[in-house]
């Protein structure tokens, strides 16, 4: 399957470099590699397509969004227990810095969090949306940097472990 990143001008701040980061994180995901598509080829030079692109194999199976419709809701527990196990394996991976694997890197957790919120608010405002709630969260994160910085060991986090994926 060919995946092509949007042109940089069409990407929000928080989306820039996502495909490059996905490529860079692969070695850190070795414990769950059998569950993921394998990257067959990748190119970030823009010489061939003018954008970042990757070719990945397709993993056999049924998407969770479809598979969860078959059994009754009372039987979903084992699926979410497995998802929790996968999340634990990902979140047990440590790294040398805070922030995305590819970049930008931060020396402390609060810098990574505040920057993410600032960029999210700016993206919302660029789209003509109200970002006051995100600005409020940003202000709270800035005010409580010391609490955020109690996390001193960078860990790999995934926000992509949801049923649609």
Verbal overview:
This protein has 165 residues and is mainly alpha-helical. The chain has helices at residues 18-25, 64-67, 77-91, 109-126, 132-143, 145-148; strands spanning 2-4, 39-43, 53-56. The protein has a three-stranded antiparallel β-sheet, with no helix packed on it. The model has no long low-confidence stretch (mean pLDDT 92).
List the helices and strands and how they pair.
Layout: E1 2-4, H1 18-25, E2 39-43, E3 53-56, H2 64-67, H3 77-91, H4 109-126, H5 132-143, H6 145-148
Antiparallel strand pairs: 1-3, 2-3
Helix pairs in contact: 4-5
Q: Give helix and strand order, one letter per element, not per position.
A: EHEEHHHHH
Choose one word for the global shape.
Answer: globular
The description of the largest β-sheet is: 3 strands, antiparallel
The CA-CA distance between the termini, in Å, is 15 Å
| Helical fraction | 25-40%
- Secondary-structure-derived class: mainly alpha
**How much strand content do the residues show?**
5-15%
Which blocks of ≥5 consecutive residues have pLDDT under 50?
Answer: none
Descriptive tags:
165 residues; mainly alpha; three-stranded antiparallel sheet; 6 helices; 3 strands; globular
Give a quick rundown of the structure.
By secondary structure, the protein is mainly alpha-helical. The protein has helices at residues 18-25, 64-67, 77-91, 109-126, 132-143, 145-148, and strands at residues 2-4, 39-43, 53-56.
């Amino acid at each position: 399957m060919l995946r092509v990143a949007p042109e940089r001008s069409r990407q929000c701040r928080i989306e820039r470099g996502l495909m490059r980061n996905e490529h860079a994180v692969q070695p850190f995901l070795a414990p769950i590699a059998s569950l993921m598509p394998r990257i067959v080829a990748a190119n970030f030079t823009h010489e061939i397509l003018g954008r970042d692109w990757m070719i990945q194999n397709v993993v056999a199976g049924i998407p969770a969004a479809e598979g969860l419709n078959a059994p009754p809701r009372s039987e979903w527990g084992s699926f979410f227990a497995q998802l929790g196990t996968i999340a634990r394996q990902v979140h047990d991976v440590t790294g040398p810095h805070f922030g995305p694997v590819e970049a930008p890197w931060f020396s402390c957790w609060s810098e990574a969090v505040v920057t993410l919120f600032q960029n999210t608010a700016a993206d919302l405002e660029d789209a003509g949306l109200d970002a006051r709630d995100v600005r409020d969260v940003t202000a709270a994160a800035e005010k409580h940097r010391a609490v955020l910085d109690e996390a001193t060991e960078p860990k790999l986090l995934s926000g992509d472990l949801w049923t649609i994926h």
